[in-house]
UniProtKB/TrEMBL annotation:
<dbReference type="GO" id="GO:0003777">
    <property type="term" value="F:microtubule motor activity"/>
</dbReference>
<dbReference type="GO" id="GO:0005874">
    <property type="term" value="C:microtubule"/>
</dbReference>
<comment type="similarity">
    <text>Belongs to the TRAFAC class myosin-kinesin ATPase superfamily. Kinesin family.</text>
</comment>
<dbReference type="InterPro" id="IPR036961">
    <property type="entry name" value="Kinesin_motor_dom_sf"/>
</dbReference>
<dbReference type="GO" id="GO:0005524">
    <property type="term" value="F:ATP binding"/>
</dbReference>
<keyword id="KW-0505">Motor protein</keyword>
<dbReference type="GO" id="GO:0008017">
    <property type="term" value="F:microtubule binding"/>
</dbReference>
<dbReference type="Pfam" id="PF16796">
    <property type="entry name" value="Microtub_bd"/>
</dbReference>
<keyword id="KW-0547">Nucleotide-binding</keyword>
<dbReference type="InterPro" id="IPR027640">
    <property type="entry name" value="Kinesin-like_fam"/>
</dbReference>
<feature type="domain" description="Kinesin motor">
    <location>
        <begin position="84"/>
        <end position="117"/>
    </location>
</feature>
<keyword id="KW-0493">Microtubule</keyword>
<dbReference type="InterPro" id="IPR001752">
    <property type="entry name" value="Kinesin_motor_dom"/>
</dbReference>
<dbReference type="GO" id="GO:0007018">
    <property type="term" value="P:microtubule-based movement"/>
</dbReference>
<dbReference type="InterPro" id="IPR031852">
    <property type="entry name" value="Vik1/Cik1_MT-bd"/>
</dbReference>
<dbReference type="InterPro" id="IPR027417">
    <property type="entry name" value="P-loop_NTPase"/>
</dbReference>
<protein>
    <submittedName>
        <fullName>Kinesin-1</fullName>
    </submittedName>
</protein>
Length: 117
């Protein structure tokens, strides 16, 4: 009877120890679950932020392409206008059919007050 009580007492102690270990393991499991949940939430936030940044990048690249096209168009327009001005301002020498040789050639430039209007 004494050894039976001793065995029973040892088994109760072992059960108590295992229950404590189980409680500790359950607590660790809860902490791990909370950590996983927090990590998932942060991951989803980062994933959402990444998508937003990729969309912004695509928009910026599109704006850059449009800006480059506009810049090229305006540059070509400026070059064309410079050429037109150069042609417009070019002075051609008088040809024999333009008038008599006796006439004096007069080129008059407006004064600064005339140019202002």
């Amino acid at each position: 009877s004494g050894s039976l009580e001793e065995t029973c007492s040892l088994q109760k102690n072992r059960i108590n120890m295992l229950e404590q270990q189980l409680a500790i393991a359950n607590e660790k499991q809860k902490l791990a679950d909370a950590s996983v949940s927090l990590t998932r939430t942060e991951f989803e936030e980062q994933k959402h932020l990444l998508c937003e940044l990729q969309d912004r990048l695509a928009d910026m690249e599109h704006q850059l392409c449009e800006g480059e096209l506009l810049r090229k168009k305006l540059h070509n327009t400026i070059l064309e206008l410079k050429g037109n001005i150069r042609v417009f301002c070019r002075v051609r020498p008088l040809l024999p059919d333009d008038g008599g040789r006796n006439e004096a050639t007069v080129i008059a430039y407006p004064t600064s007050t005339e140019a202002r209007g």
